[in-house]
Each structure stands twice: as C-alpha cells, then as structure tokens.
Amino acid sequence: MRSFTEELRSEAEPIFKAIFDHPFVRGIAEGSLRKEQLVHYVKQDFEYLNAFMRIYGIAISKCESRETIEFFNEQISFILHSETHPHNNFCQVAGVSYEEMQGYPLAPSASHYTRHMLAVAHEGTLEDIMAALLPCPWTYTEIGKRLLEEIQPDASHPFYDWMHFYGDMEDGVTGQMRRLLDGWAESLSPARKKRLKEHFMASCQLEYLFWDMAYRLEEWPVNMTEGEKVG
Ligand SMILES: Cc1ncc(C[n+]2csc(CCO)c2C)c(N)n1
Which positions are annotated as active-site residues? Predict the structure, then answer.
C-alpha cells in the first residue's frame, strides 16, 4: 500500500512539475537570472527562513519525545549555519553582500506563505505542522537533484554550489520528515488526513508563488516610505 506521503507527492505532481518548469528554476539551470531577481529572492528567503525557525520552535513546544525535539533542534541549526551557503552563492553571482540583504519586509507571496505555516503551527498539532513544512525541503531537494542530472554542472557553472547544496541532500531532512509524518498518519482518521493534505497542497502552491514572486520582483501595490511598510 502507498504511504501517506507517497499519496501526497503523487497528488502534488502537477504543482511539482510547474515548479520545475518555472522560469526562475530554469534561470538557475541556465545561469540566466538577473541581479535584481537574485537580490529579491535572497532578501525574501532570509526572512522566510527566520519564520521557518520560529515555526520549528512552535513545533518543539508541541513535541512529546526527545527524538522529535532533537530533530527540530538540528533543523534550526541547519538553517542557521548551513542554509546560508545557497544564499551566499546567489549573493556572489549578483555581486552584493549577504548582510545588505537582511531585514527587509516580506513581499505579498512570501508573507502569505509564512503566515500559512504560522497559522497551521499555532492552531494545529505536530502532524499538521509537519504536513505544512514538508513541501519546503521536498521541492528543493527534487529541484537540486533534477538540475544536477540535467546540467551535470562543472565548478564554472554560476549556480554549481546551489545545485549541489540541495541536490546532494539525498534522503536527509525530507526522508526524516516523511518517516515521522507517515508514522503519525497511520492512526489518523480520513478527515484528519484530508486536513493535512490541504496544508501540504497549500504549501506546494505557495512554493510555486515564492519562485514567481522572486522572478517578477513582486512588491506590495502601493510604494510606501520606510517605517510604513507592511509584511
Ligand atoms: C521558499 C523556500 N522554500 C524552501 C527552501 C528550502 N529549505 C528551507 S528550510 C529547509 C529545511 C530545513 O529543515 C529547506 C530545505 C527555501 N530556502 N526557501
């Protein structure tokens, strides 16, 4: 029988495909992204990852075993100390310093995505949270793997480090999250599983929108002076 997360992945196939074909992801493959697009992505992703760590913190507050606390704790360290590498890759190509990219307000789609995960985290249980977080590592590790297979980049490719960072993760965080979620899902009712699926699909759609936001340099519709900005 198919596991719960295999079922999720299969239903999300059209969204994964749209992400692989998105012009920002194709721009990583072709090394053709413009400086402003890389800058917008890093500014937004820096704040996205801050929100992600806070959500892991909320998840820790709902854990009943030390193993799951340890997992979330390791993932916070991973974001703090390792997930800076792909950002640095984008900054180097854009010719900007990473420090300058930090502290910006979230654009509409990034705001939507982080608030979706935060709402699920505050209102839901550990399994709700895991369903909403899983598309994040799952889409990135698949993008990385596909790009490595397709491009077989050498070290002169501008996004060599980015592709290897996500493409070499193998089973890693995605596998660990899937095993936890599949274990918990075994004792859930069909109605609860349906709810988890909704969280998962919303996050997949929002992954697509995040790439689109970066590609189109999405901003709030009315330009405001510093201090009045939302996000
Ligand atoms: C919009 C967006 N989605 C996914 C990732 C990738 N990512 C973020 S956290 C994490 C795992 C940490 O446990 C991974 C793989 C990103 N950087 N930005």
Answer: 136, 207
For residues 203 and 136, the answer to whether their CB atoms sit within 8 Å is: yes
| CA proximity to 132, closest of 44, 188, 59 | 59
Residue 173 CA, closest ligand 1 atom number: 13
Burial of 3 (0-12, 13-18, 19+ CB in 10 A): middle
Angular region, 152: left φ>0, alpha ψ -120 to 50, beta rest: left
C-alpha span between 52 and 62 (Å, rounded): 16
Mind listing the pLDDT tens digit for each residue in 174-205? 999 999 999 999 999 999 999 999 999 999 99
Closest ligand 1 atom, CA of 44?
1
Please give the backbone phi and psi of residue 205, each rounded to the nearest 5 degrees, phi first.
Answer: -60, -40
Q: Is the pTM of this model over 0.90?
A: yes
Q: Is 48 in the pocket of ligand 1 (CB under 6 A)?
A: yes
Distance CA 73, CA 56 (A): 8
25, 200, 41, 20: which is closest to 107 by C-alpha? 41
CA–CA gap between residue 229 and residue 231 (Å, rounded): 7
Report the CATH superfamily, name and number, of domain 4-216: Heme oxygenase-like (1.20.910.10)
ipTM above 0.90, yes or no: yes
Positive or negative, the CA dihedral 79, 80, 85, 86 is positive
